[in-house]
Amino acid sequence: MLIRAAVPQGHHPWLPPPIAPALAVVQKVPPAAISCRLGTPQLRSLKTSNGLCKARRRVRYDEEEDEEEDTEEHGQNSEMSLMEAYSEAVRDVALVVRATVDGEEETVLIFKGFSSCLSSRTAYDPSKSVLPARAVIECIDVVRGPFDPSNVEYLEKGLTWEAFKTRLQSNNR
């Protein structure tokens, strides 16, 4: 559908010059091209008279509706915060944490103050803890950073949370 607006006869400098109706090109845009991401071949091939067709992008997350429920259930994990602070202070090591959440084993990598879940999806929100408060930490491996999964150099392996916690307390003194 083409919408025509009434343009006054006098030209205003802030408006582009009017286009003669014979020179105007109207191109139908297929619905698939509108919903696709920018930069795909379909969208790149759509040309208008003044350049590339522009589209607005909106990031969509699968679990937007469940976010409010998930934050109440998820909770902030203070143990993860302590380990992130430790890895930020000791920058040449990475921590591989194995924990259990509701009977499922989770593996988390912590390096330079940031944590990422290796066994499942990491939340997009960095203020949200990777492991929920109800997680039980099984063991912690200290590896040389930066972490290279093809060549893991273990400095310490199989530390319990209690042993690692005493290390944190002795470093704070």
UniProtKB/TrEMBL annotation:
Residues 82-168 form the DUF7734 domain. PANTHER family: EXPRESSED PROTEIN. InterPro entries: DUF7734 (IPR056636). It comes from Musa troglodytarum. Pfam families: DUF7734. GO terms for cellular component: chloroplast. Residues 60-79 are annotated as: Disordered. This is DUF7734 domain-containing protein. Residues 62-72 have a biased composition (Acidic residues). It comes from the Eukaryota.
